[in-house]
Amino acid sequence: MRVLNYLELADQLERSGIATSVAHQRQALADTDIDVLTTPWADGHPAWALGGTLAFDDPIFQEYDVAHCNMIGPGSVAVARHANRNDIPLVLHAHVTREDFEGSFRGSNLVAPALGKYLKRFYSQADLVLCPSEYTKGVLESYPVDAPIHPITNGVDAEPLSGFESFREEYRERYGLEGMTVFAVGSVFERKGLTTFCELAQRTDYDFAWFGTYDDGPHGSKTVKRWASNPPENVTFTGWVEDIRGAYGAGDVFLFPSKVENQGIVVLEAMACGKAVVLSDIPVFQEYYEDGHDCLICEDEAEFEAALERLEADPDLRERLGENAKETAREHGLDRVGEQLVAAYEDVR
Question: First CA to last CA across the chain, in angstroms?
């Protein structure tokens, strides 16, 4: 079977969770019998493909048996129309929802309602919609999306994280981290619990570090700019780090007080590294993780603070949660992603 696995704007999304998920898909499919194409365009670029059509009557699109699009922009719209007109099964991957778009960039809350209407139409044209969780499936059904919806984990690739321990001393020294360090990984958004993260730092004496980029330009939210430009004394915003293993090596307790997630790949990465994980009480974390077994789940800042105090006072609890978290991460291995993708493609053919 020849499958198009398409991510438009791949260069711009290079540091995003969407790009990580797509990389996981392609790596997982490499161990199957699926022949994967990564671009729909016959000449490698839509402009070149269109030029070839006008000049030489060459086809714009390559040939494939199933189209699988991972974004929602004009390139994906063109692929979807081509697939529907030519009876090619269409799989759309719902990495983007109205709910997780809110609280991301300046003005995102104003745009979100219109985005929701667009997503309803866009996803409804699919033969199958894939999404990262049962929670996201419920969100899409509430729009409502008029297409079959199937959850499939984004997965986690533990191999690139191998050797993270060896970076501990270098990264802790670089960012001046001491004692039990509370950390987060990924782009800095208010939706991911930025204010809670910083207010917890103000209420405690631990070192806090957020490893990831933040937008201080015109698109950056006022909240991000405020905290990033004037953080509490015990909070470090590192910006981009060249090796993500340094983040997981330097940190001790992974704190992710996110308000909305479709899954949260960074949580699985922290778990794969055996870190004690503290999460917000939102549906997707309740779906995938178990409070007191592989993480601690908290409803408010008081519970977050109490959780951090417990973990500092009880190294054995940190170790037990970390070991159980490793087992949870293994349940989201790329072998499982590959099996589920192949089954999805076979179902729509």
Answer: 10
